[in-house]
Amino acid sequence: MTVESAIRTDDYSVPPIAALDKGTAPGVRHDWKETEISALFDLPFNDLIFRAQMVHRQHFDPNQVQMSTLLSVKTGGCSEDCAYCPQSAHYETGVKAEKLMAVEAVLAEARRARDSGATRYCMGAAWRSPKDRDLDAVCAMIEGVRDLGMETCVTLGMLTETQTERLRDSGLDYYNHNIDTSEEFYGEIITTRTYQDRLDTLGHVRDAGINVCSGGIVGMGEARSDRVGMLKTLATMPKHPESVPINMLVRVEGTPVDGEAALDPLEFVRTIAVARIMMPESMVRLSAGRETMSDEIQALCFLAGANSIFVGPKLLTTDNPERDRDEALFDKLGIESMPL
Asked: 245: which of 66, 120, 171, 275 lies 20 to 30 Å off by Cα?
């Protein structure tokens, strides 16, 4: 099967640039096949980027990027054994277990993030799943951040239906729960919860009417077929995640995947582009790993359809580019912050 025959020609024939504003870009699909996704990955790089940019322009301003900030509100001591995570209690990474932050301390950080241009505030807690008593404080954080005029997102691990409903009632906009990789490779990375556990939590989030934020991590030793499988899982959901973070592995000493060879940066760009084509209405977030990416690779990711980033010096416990570096890059590229 050739690349062109594996992709539906009625959906993916490439129109002239002048036709892009006339409804010619492909629509939203939920019936992706692995052969089609693999064919996208196999396209010549320029053709893939062109198609991704075509889709991107159909649904978003190509020169706007959403600015989000991520804060670890409860760090370390997690009972899960995720092979990439420095917060796991299974590994010696130098990250110490801490208590849940006070609500006012979190809101003070949120104000600083808002004043620096962030429009979405994300809060992460290193839990397998939250205890019901923990949700009292988390719900107060959500309400406080919303009062600041920002979108809210939390990632707290696995949820029950009742817990999800409590988060919804507090006004939560997004819940992040990444599937991380393909179902086939998942057991090589995590053994303390199943792939289905993750899908069940995402189902609770969707049923509660909360927006879904779910993506994965690349560069953990997986094959391209696993990146295909990960994107297929996301893009064949009854409704695509509203936010799809694509993370480049940040190798942390002490974690099992620390010794993995670095993924070719252009393969990372390809993953961004394929995600954009498959989930045209989703925010595709250029997430972890930007600290070690060149300006040129980040620019290619934006060209490929990434339109959301985390700003601020930290992503939970790992480094992120300083604000002045991002501002300098956006000035060079003519990128502006996406308004709420």
From this structure: 171
